[in-house]
Amino acid sequence: MKYLIKYFIDFIALIFLYAFVFFRKWRVQGRDVLLVNTLIYAYLSLVLFFTMMPIIVSIPFMLDHPYKPMNLVPFIDVSLGRGDFFRQVVLNVIMTLPFGFLFPLTRGKRAIFGVTVFFCFLMSFSIEILQPFFDRSSDITDLITNVIGGALGYFLYAIFKPVTVWALEHLKTR
Asked: Which ranges of the chain have pLDDT less than 50?
């Protein structure tokens, strides 16, 4: 139970941030903007849950353990036979697919492949750099597979772009 309280504090902070900052800002921009931005906010909150949380209660203890540097040998788990490598790769790709799909929707006409992949890289790189501060491991393979997931998500966006644009326009006119 004590372990769940740590996560609860982070989720309460995320809910307050959404309700008192972002929701007010996005609501006045239209229902389409509110929907897309809320979806990406919920998605990023889940990414934080799986990669970094608990955060708030961990901040005072961030420097109480040695910093473990990032493993910079790509796909070393395969050659060493460590863990369930295939599962990790698939989960990392799946984790960033929504980013590759949702991020272009927030950009409108400025949604291009390179920008989406670059921001996916920045998100993943930030997580990988910060994870050791929260006593988690960091791996270059995660960064590579996350970027691949973001790129695949962008391709899904490109395929379904006519449908999503139509749906968002329809939402705008209601």
From this structure: none
